[in-house]
Amino acid sequence: MRRSLTSGNTMTTSDCPWASIVPRHKDHEDSESACYARNTVAIRSHFRPRISTIEEAYDASGHLRSEFLETDFERVILPRYHRRAAEAVLMGMNGRVRLTSGLRQAIRTPLTYNQLAHRHPWAVIVVRRGRRYRKLCANIATAVHTAALLEEKYGNATVVSRSRGYVIPPKLRGKLPKGWMWCPYCMKPRKFKRVANETFYGLRKVWSDDKQRYVFRERKLALLECPCCGSTNRDTNFRRSNQPWEVRRVKRGARKIKARHKTRRRGNKIEVVVV
Ligand SMILES: [Zn+2]
Ligand SMILES: [Zn+2]
Questions:
Q1: Which of 98, 118, 122, 235 could form a disulfide with 143 if both were Cys (CB 3.0 to 4.6 A apart)?
Q2: Which of 6-10, 22-26, 256-260 has the highest mean predicted lDDT (pLDDT)?
Q3: Angstrom distances, CA of residue 167 to CA of 35, 47, 89, 109
Q4: How far is the CA of 68 from the centre of ligand 1 (A)?
Q5: Considering only 10-24, 43-57, 75-89, 140-154, which range has the smallest mean pLDDT?
Q6: How far apart are CA 222 and CA 32, in angstroms?
Q7: Given this model, what pLDDT does residue 15 score?
């Protein structure tokens, strides 16, 4: 049976259990669950645990506790925490540190939900004698600072994004020297290494003479790995970043754009040397 929304069913401010919780609560004619759906964040913010440090919102494995989902903590406090860290880096708190364009791009991009849900969205990785050492960081300011200290000490240190990949910044698109590829997690160009003889099928942009533009084709590709963070060329952001970008203008009369990568043929064996 369908209840009429208008006749005698009006909830007044005093009737609705959320009335005292939701700011500027208005009388409404629908149910309290409809009211909850409209005001979830306000209501959940009211009931979430009170905490004094950011860390308390995360469980032992570093994930945001469910009581904080869809609350002011997730929607306002965490983004502000990370925004301030980013501002601190840009304001030159770490003035001695030279920021790469990848790092600058990451600092200027608001964190995704996936990143906010992790206590340590960043890490600093140092490679020493073929081994990787990792230090987890709660925000970008700590990460940049830690990277600077470790770089001074060990000669190399990279800020790595742990829960989100970044595409290549516009100014580097199509500009990487041969052999270098954009790593979406190290947020810098890397020389990716072949993983044993593993291959996979992935989309690759290839030039079509017929269409006079790049088209995506599924190709068998060699599996490659970043020597620092361990991400592979199967990653979506890697695939987007390390393809020819359509910014190159084809001059009138040009018959062909030079392919950036080729499949090398050795005897009968086709060696894939591809992105
Ligand atoms: Zn209500
Ligand atoms: Zn990497």
A1: 122
A2: 22-26
A3: 40, 38, 21, 12
A4: 22
A5: 10-24
A6: 56
A7: 83
pLDDT of residue 121 exceeding 80, the answer is: yes
pLDDT reading at 80 higher than 70: yes
| Ligand 1 center to 57 CA (angstroms) | 28
Q: How far apart are CA 139 and CA 56, in angstroms?
A: 15
pLDDT of residue 94 exceeding 70, the answer is no
Ligand of minimum distance to the alpha carbon of 11: 1
What the block records as the tokens of 14 is 């005093």
Beta-carbon contacts of 73 under 8 Å, excluding residues fewer than 6 positions away, are 45, 48, 57
C-alpha dist (Å) from residue 269 to 204, 263, 265: 21, 10, 6
Q: Give the pLDDT score at 271.
A: 46
Q: DSSP H helical segments within the chain, as ranges? A: 32-38, 40-47, 72, 78-90, 101-108, 113-116, 140-154, 236-241
C-alpha 190/C-alpha 241 separation (Å) is 12
Q: What is the mean pLDDT of the chain?
A: 87
Q: How far is the CA of 7 from the centre of ligand 1 (A)?
A: 18
3-state helix, strand, coil in the chain (%, to 5): 30, 25, 50
**Which ligand has its closest atom nearest to the C-alpha of 192?**
2
159 Cα: distance to centroid of ligand 2 (angstroms): 10
Handedness of CA 91, 171, 165, 146 (dihedral sign): negative
Give the CA-trace dihedral at 188, 185, 56, 149, to 10 degrees. Answer: -30
Residue 31: Cβ-neighbour burial (10 angstroms; 0-12, 13-18, 19+)? middle
Q: At residue 5, what is the residue type?
A: L
